[in-house]
Fold this sequence. Notes:
Elements: E1 2-7, E2 10-13, E3 18-26, E4 30-39, E5 46-51, E6 57-59, E7 67-72, E8 77-82, E9 91-102, E10 105-110, E11 114-119
Parallel strand pairs: 2-11
Antiparallel strand pairs: 1-3, 3-8, 4-5, 4-9, 5-6, 7-8, 9-10, 9-11
Amino acid sequence: QVRLVESGGGLVQAGGSLRLSCAASGSIFYINAMGWYRQAPGKQRELVARITRGSITNYADSVKGRFTISRDNAKNTVDLQMNSLKPEDTAVYYCNADHQIGWGSEDTYWGQGTQVTVSS
């Protein structure tokens, strides 16, 4: 019902920057929190950053001070500005959204993922 599409991934050298974007489309009624997760090969998917509809944010300790999450509620988009990238940031990054479909009812949606590779 709700589709999330990520963009902005790619290959960069250590110390470089990337900006990931995610756009929600489809039958959108009300999107609550949105976030970015990542999964490196052979590792568990982990939270990178999350932002509420009121723009309250939280970050993984490993990215604090380097990454910034932001959103546009009117456009149903969420971005992740990634600076000072490190090789350990290499992973597939997934966009996430909590979609409210009724009173006290919420579905979670995921994008297909975008590859971020940071070379040393």
